[in-house]
Design brief:
By secondary structure, this protein is of the alpha+beta class. Helices cover 37% and strands 16% of the residues. It has 5 helices and 3 strands; from the N terminus they run ααβαβααβ. Strands 2-1-3 form a 3-stranded mixed beta sheet.
Length: 123
């Protein structure tokens, strides 16, 4: 995964010299793992780095709750958020940093959406 290089070497408060996979581990695509589990009915990864992304996150959270109410299975929504102080960047640069670095590895979108009847909903 070439995109993985975007987060390997990333400097954070807990990896001051940059993320080293030998010392800090490789990124875990948690939503991708959860989507593979039996019983997972709705799994999404969202971000809050722009107004559009925030609106999609809101829709994903509503769909996750509706899926629970339908009794289709469990829901999981992973939300990517900004941490400019932890990334050592200017606050104004955080939305683009999230999209251009973390967003290329942890891609936003719905990974699984199954209704209670086992059928995927229409797009």
């Amino acid at each position: 995964m070439e995109d993985l290089l975007e987060v390997l070497g990333q400097r954070t408060k807990t990896s001051l010299e940059g993320r080293d996979p030998a010392a800090h581990g490789r990124p875990i695509l948690l939503a991708d793992l959860v989507a593979r589990l039996d019983g997972a009915a709705y799994v999404a990864r969202c971000a809050v780095s722009s107004a559009g992304e925030l609106a999609r996150t809101h829709r994903a959270l509503r769909r996750a709750l509706d899926t629970q109410l339908e009794g289709a299975g469990f829901s999981f929504v992973e939300i990517l958020t900004m941490c400019p102080t932890g990334w050592f960047i200017e606050t104004a640069d955080a939305p683009s940093y999230l999209a251009e670095n973390l967003g290329t590895v942890h891609r936003a979108g719905v990974l699984k959406d199954v209704r209670a009847d086992g059928e995927a909903p229409a797009p």
